[in-house]
Every structure is written in structure tokens, then in C-alpha cells.
Amino acid sequence: MQITSKDLIKVLEAMGQTIASHKDYLTELDAAIGDADHGINMDRGFSAVVAKLVMLEGACCGTVLKTAGMTMLSTVGGASGPLFGTAFMNAGNAVMGKYEMGAEDAAKAVDAAVQGVMKRGSAILGDKTMVDTLLPVSKYMGTEEYLKAESIDAMQKVLVLAEDGMNSTMGLIAKRGRSSFLGERSAGHLDPGAVSSYLLIGAAVRLLGGDCF
Questions:
Q1: Which of 27, 40, 72, 135 lies 20 to 30 Å from 18 when distance is taken between CA atoms?
Q2: Which domains does the chain have, with CATH numbers?
Q3: Average pLDDT over residues 106-125
């Protein structure tokens, strides 16, 4: 499957709609182990991103993604702004100048995004962060299995891995961020960043997969 810059604009619109519809849920999750503002902050950021999409007609994939990242960085409060902003900016830098992305390009962009998040947040798998959702997806997209799979099969696998990674945070003890101050009391709750990452992946997969999802 080839993903054009126009497709990416539609993906970002879908992401914005998804975050808006789950804003209260994300804030509720954050209220249990954080500052109770994750949903509000993410919605503010994606509202700003969507508002800029009209100006990105004709831009390359890298510019679309990087603009989204810079907008998130400047409008989202807390830790989410730097982390999600870095993810989109790094992804954009990885495919700068491309107007279409194939499977290898998508894998390269996602890997750059995840590596940026891990470096920015000093987080690894198992720390109860968005990395637990994103890293399994990135690792799969770097395999021959992903590159050779039918596009719909590959997207289905991506969605399953993201969901499994998100759900894994329920039993983990937070080691990064505000929730790490709770120690063992952070176990038994989903990480809000992991959930929002899953929602974003789901929005992209469903938009690109159409009726198959």
C-alpha cells in the first residue's frame, strides 16, 4: 500500500476526531495516576493540528508529519507535548521529501518516532508508558513478515500488537513520569499515554484500511 501526503492529512483528521471523542476517558485514566489533564491536553493539541491541515495541501509526507509534531510541541501541556511532538517530528524527518510512502518508508518513520520518544522520555519497554504500545509495533514493522504481508494483514497485526502493548500497562508499575511517584499503587491502571497511542494507531489503521476494519 502506498500512503500519500493527502492520505496522511486524512489520517491526522481521523486522529483528531478519535482523541476528541475519547477526551473524557483519557482524562479519567489520567486522574487515577497522573494530573487528570491528558485528554484535555491531547484534544487541544490535535485540534490545533487539524486547524493547520488546510495549509498543508501539496506538502510532502515529511512536512505534514513534522508540522503536526511542531504543533503538538507548542500546544500540548505536560509531558505529552514533548513526547508526541517528538514522535511526529522524527517521523517527518525520516520521510522528508517523499510524497508517497511504501511499507519500508512507513516502517522507517515509525521507528524514528519511537526512538525519539524513548530518548526524550528515557523510557524502555515495561516502564508503563506509551513505549509499551509503540515499540512492539515498531519492531514488527521492521521485519520481513511485515514487509511481505498483504497490507490489510499487516495493519491487522499492527492493531493487535498495539492493543496488547496498551493492555500490558495495566499490570505494570510506573517507572517514568508523574505516575512513577505512586510506586506499586500505579499497578492496576492503564497508562494514559499508552492508551492514546493505541487510539492514534487505531485511527490510522481504520482510515487506511477502510471497510476492512
A1: 135
A2: 3-212 (1.25.40.340)
A3: 96
- CB burial string 79-95: b at 16+ within 10 A, e below: bbbbbbbbbbbbbbbbb
Residue type, 95: V
What is the predicted pLDDT for the residue at 111?
98
Strands, E assignment, 95-139:
100-101
Which pLDDT belongs to residue 49? 97
Contact 200, 20 (CB under 8 A): no
Q: Indicate whether 50 pLDDT > 90.
A: yes
**Cell digits of residue 83:** 513526547
Give the Cβ contact number of residue 156 at 10 Å.
16
Give this prediction's pTM: 0.94
Q: How many helices (H) and strands (E) does the chain have?
A: 10, 2
